[in-house]
Amino acid sequence: MKVITLLGSAKKKGNTGTVLGWIEEELSVMGHEVERIPLARKNIRGCLGCGKCKDFPDEIGCVQKDDAPEIFEKMIQAQLTLFASPVYFWGFSAHMKAIIDRGYGLVCNYHKPDHISLLEGQHQALLVTGADAYENNAEPLFTAFDRITEFYKAKKTGDLYITGTTPDQMSSDIREKAISFARQIAK
Description:
single chain; Rossmann fold; alpha/beta; two-stranded antiparallel ribbon; 187 residues
């Protein structure tokens, strides 16, 4: 299976990157082809809300010339996309939010009988890391992600929330959760 992981953290070796690395490693051991896209290293501008993308319902039709179309093409070709983000002010990181917003162009006729999506049927999963408890902190990301997968007509295969302060303080229990999560989302 082709797996795309979207790293929404600016820190390649921070909490999100560390846990994501364990998940990617397990997916690779399981025989899956895994490609990480570090969103902070990409040129992804915010959605203009112009609606020009709706002129091309069967293709990536955004008028902006940046890295988003290439990322979307990789997502379309994958069977699983794993979104990985730290909690930033009760939401996704700016890097992740930009690609999610631009994903507006992958869907036409939402909430209508002829709703179509270039990601229809794809498996999607969510990894979130944060320093605080889930309640009053991370839950908006999980609610948003459920709505995003519905918008994309995708299949949510799992989500995982990890709390911790620094990668070197993460316990073996967290690594085991990551490995178990990889197995869950790759079924």
